[in-house]
Amino acid sequence: MSDQIQFIVEKLNQEPFRKNYNLITFDSLESVQLLQLLSDVLGEIDPKHAVDIREELPEQTAKRMLTLLGILKYKPPGTISDLSAFRQGLVTGSKPIIHPVLHWLLQKTNELKKRAYLARFLVKLEVPVEFLQDDTVADINKQYEELMEAFKNLHKECEQLRTSGLSTAEIRRDISAMEEEKDQLIKRVERLKKRVETVQNHQRMLEIARQLRLEKEREESLAQQKQEQKNQLFHAEQRLQRAQLQLKEMHHAVVDSKPESLMKKLEEEINFNSYLVNEKIPRELESKKKSVYFLQKVVAEPAMGQSDLHVLDSKINEVNAQINQLIEKRMMKYEPIDSKFSMYRQQASIISRKKEAKAEELQAAKEEMSTTERQMLQKTNQAHELEGSEVLKGDEFKHYVNKLRSKNTLYKKKRMEIAEITAEYGILQRTEELLKQRHEAIQQQLQALEDKKGISGYSYTQEELERVSAIKSEMDEMKGQTLDNMSDMVKKLNAMVAEKKSSLAPVIKELRQLRQKCQELTQECDEKKIQYDSCAAGLESNRSTLEQEVKGLLEECVQEESNYRYVNCMKRNLEVQLQRAKEEMKTYVSPDPQERRKAIREQYTRMILEQENLGKKLREKQKVVRESHGPNMKQIKMWQDFEQLMECKRECFLKQQNQAAIGQVIQEGGKDRLVL
């Protein structure tokens, strides 16, 4: 604890506080001064909290400090088991409560400043659900959330830029390396130009190479277009398959169906949906709202320890026991044993539970059916992609087996042919090697003849020109083939589309009739929906007024509770002071002299007597000092004069020694001259 106080004092004596405290003065601070000091430290972290606590009520001060400590995520130490005691200690300025808070704040000042700055922009404003039903309020709330996310991203980028500083030396090295690569590429291009200029007809060959490159690029673009058209055709076939599947489902639904059965199905769906809308979903929504409210309340509270959780569990168990007792008393009072209402109510509750269970099962079954339908559609699409067919049955399977047998025999024959071809391929490969060797020998002879005649490189250029012309002719043939294939594909697609339109014409007629029926039913559904919306709006307005009243009453209750706690705290302080006064009177009136010595009054009287005796001694000492002051000053003056006299004698002695030394040197110099 002493290390903690010493750390607090050191931090408060530094910038920006500069309080000039020591351990004694800091420990002697009163509760109001401690609260003001805590407010100053919080004001350094968040400038909005730089407030004089004398200008606000104690409840406002405690609320303001608790709010900021909650934002900064302060957790009280483990010795504080009750949060109400923590709040009470914060209101009264208790040292065991405020000292740990100051130690924590001064230990993480920079980090907490950053957290308080971010809290100004990232603490979300809670908007009631009934206000979010308004479109303008919902749009503004959405914009607010988007701006909050944008601020988060910008802050992260700013922190990354601050931490990851780019090195100018690395950038310069990269630039120098790129310049060197550029110079090397320029030199390489110049060397290649010089090599090409020695070849005959190099301009024509460059033009042919450029045309070849352009044709290759055009070929790639045509291949890309072909692939895109294939993808479009594949997607169109998928859409067609889905439409056919939907058409089959509608045919199956229409077969052997009558208007009465369709109306019955629609009534069942409407009843199920109305049950969901009117009973199940509102209950779930209410439970979710309650859970969200309690979760928000839990989040607003400071962090709890294990002891707090045990206390809450014990309170919950006590409240549940009281509720059960009240229910039993109510049942005994208002519902006799021989009454039949209890039985009917039990049956009604059982039926409602069964209804809820069946509704959940129905909803789960519908979801499962939709998932299986999606999976079936995916599997059929995958089968069509792999060019597969449907599952075979009966005679079709036998025919498929016979077909596989014939294919197996054909496979064996082809395999034998492949073996013969591979053997022939080995022979041809050997002949090719021999021909290549002969070709190389002839090429060497031809090159020697060209060197003799002075036309070296003629055969090479001739072969290159023939090869380029052959490649160009092949490219032209490929272009023509691709264009023919594309035109055939377009014709086939147009024919398929015309066939599908003719086959879908009767189905479209049936769909028109069904659409008319659907429009009539949708009109009726819209009318019912309007009635439901009007009723729901009235109930919602009543609910909002009741919620506002409840909210106001809750706020009054919280205010009264805080007033009660403050008054209770003041009462406890007064009781402690009164108890101390009673004990003091008891010890002062006690006949026992030992007990009387323990009284504060006796202690203070003894201290006063000691201080008076000390004052008398100090006054006598002062009198002696005053009497001896004159002679002592004269003696000091005499010693100073004596010191000056001795200093003067020392200087004279030193001067005399210097003069004697100079005279001796002069005499020695004269003797030397006489000897010379």
Automatic annotation (TrEMBL):
GO terms for molecular function: tubulin binding. The keyword Disulfide bond does not apply. One of its GO terms (biological process) is intraciliary transport. Pfam families: IFT81_CH. Keywords: Acetylation, Cell projection, Cilium, Cilium biogenesis/degradation, Coiled coil, Cytoplasm, Cytoskeleton, Differentiation, Phosphoprotein, Spermatogenesis. GO terms for cellular component: ciliary basal body; intraciliary transport particle B. Residues 3-126 form the IFT81 calponin homology domain. It is found in: Cytoplasm, Cytoskeleton, Cilium basal body. Residues 137-246, 309-382, 504-563 form a coiled coil. InterPro entries: IFT81, IFT81_CH, IFT81_N_sf. Component of the intraflagellar transport (IFT) complex B: together with IFT74, forms a tubulin-binding module that specifically mediates transport of tubulin within the cilium. Binds tubulin via its CH (calponin-homology)-like region. Required for ciliogenesis. Required for proper regulation of SHH signaling. Plays an important role during spermatogenesis by modulating the assembly and elongation of the sperm flagella. Belongs to the IFT81 family. This is Intraflagellar transport protein 81 homolog. The lineage of its organism: Eukaryota, Metazoa, Chordata, Craniata, Vertebrata.
